[in-house]
UniProtKB/TrEMBL annotation:
It comes from the Eukaryota. It is found in: Secreted. Transmembrane segments: none annotated. The lineage of its organism: Eukaryota, Metazoa, Chordata, Craniata, Vertebrata. InterPro entries: 4_helix_cytokine-like_core (IPR009079), Somatotropin/Prolactin (IPR001400), Somatotropin_CS (IPR018116). This is PRL protein. GO terms for molecular function: hormone activity. The keyword Kinase does not apply. GO terms for cellular component: extracellular space. Keywords: Hormone, Secreted. Belongs to the somatotropin/prolactin family. GO terms for biological process: positive regulation of receptor signaling pathway via JAK-STAT; response to nutrient levels. The gene is Prl_0.
Length: 137
């Protein structure tokens, strides 16, 4: 996976020890790291004639969701991530994603995306519990 070099907490216990701002920044870095590969993937699958229209629509929805989630995290946490927004995704994350992500097979790509999506989901749950502890997390 192109994000394998990114240092992320291994397990919920470690993620809970990370300060809120750092965890939020990590979420933003993961989301930013997927911006270019998802765009490339969408472009790639548009040229597959054998794919049903539902798959194409779903791929675009996922890409839009990642963008909206990144924007929402930035706004809701009151963080303006100029360092990430002002750079290309490979610069913002310190990863060379153009080759590695674009050369993955579709199944590897989806596997990596699912892995990182699960991380983001877990980190967001931790942040939600910190912000709104009344939800009995």
């Amino acid at each position: 996976c192109h994000t394998s070099g990114m240092l992320t907490p291994n397990g919920k216990e470690y993620a809970q020890k990370i300060p809120r701002e750092e965890l939020t920044h990590l979420i933003l870095k993961l989301l930013q790291a997927w911006k270019e590969p998802l765009s490339h993937f969408n472009h790639h699958i548009e040229h597959h004639q054998e794919l049903p229209d539902d798959s194409l629509i779903k791929a675009k929805q996922i890409s839009n969701m990642v963008h909206e989630l990144k924007t929402g995290v930035e706004k809701s946490m009151g963080i303006i991530s100029n360092s990430l927004n002002g750079m290309a995704s490979s610069e913002g994350t310190g990863l060379s994603i153009s080759n590695e992500a674009n050369m993955m097979s579709d199944s590897d790509f989806i596997h990596c995306f699912r892995r990182d999506s699960n991380k983001v989901q877990s980190y967001l749950k931790i942040l939600k519990c910190r912000i709104m502890p009344e939800n009995s997390c």
